Known about the structure:
Layout: E1 48-54, E2 63-68, E3 78-79, E4 81-84, E5 87-93, E6 99-105, E7 109-110, E8 116-118, E9 123-126
Parallel strand pairs: 1-9
Antiparallel strand pairs: 1-5, 2-3, 2-6, 4-5, 6-7, 6-8
Amino acid sequence: MPTKSTTTKPAATKKAAVKSPVTIPASPAKKAPTKPAFKPVAKSAGKKTVIVAKIDVGWGNSIYLRGIGGGLSWDVGVLMDNAKKDEWTWSCPASDGPITYKFVRNDAHWALGPDHIAAPGETAMTTPQFPAW
């Protein structure tokens, strides 16, 4: 008898289930810090050289500063800020070095006495004297 030739089919193999890559949710974006409406004075802001004139020059008058260093000039005065009735202030970065200065009332009448010197980072408080009007 003739033999039947049997062809066997290969066994069906199961395909491994392919999982889609795991999606990791992105971390929420970090918000940039908001700047305050004012700039607080901090030690990290750097030192300043501050010059203060303690004098009441009367209503309508001003104190100017002339000198060398910190952007000052002997030729043109810089108006000081009137912080209080009897207090005028001016400041610059301490990195500008020492400052030699003199007060000038209304940028026309020089204070009496010698020039003053403020060391870098120092607050120099002076009570200038001016000649009588």
